[in-house]
Structures are given as C-alpha cells and as structure tokens.
Amino acid sequence: MRFLADENFNGKLLAGLRAALPDLDVVRVQDTDKVASSDPELLAWAAEQGL
User: Fold this and answer.
1) What residue spans define the domains of the chain?
2) What is the pTM of this model?
3) Which residues of the chain have pLDDT under 50?
4) Which residues, 6 or more positions from 21, have their beta carbon under 8 angstroms from its beta carbon?
C-alpha cells in the first residue's frame, strides 16, 4: 500500500513512521510537482498514481 503525505502532514511524524516502518511507501507532495494543488486536484492525482 502506498500513501500520500500532503504539505500539512507533520514531517517529524513522517520521519518517525519511516524509522519504525522502513517498508512504508510514502510519497510527499513536496517531492512532486503537485505542491500548492487544491485538495480535489491532489486527490485525483493520488488516485491516478495508486496512492
């Protein structure tokens, strides 16, 4: 399962999750070209990407 962490997701929490669950597949919005997209746009893109 893949997850999308949007710009408002706490970075420290994400780092902790990744440390505890090294196989966790998380895409950060900040690492894509979707920064500042509206929620509906982001949700549609995430669905297309299988997130």
Assistant:
1) 2-49
2) 0.80
3) none
4) none
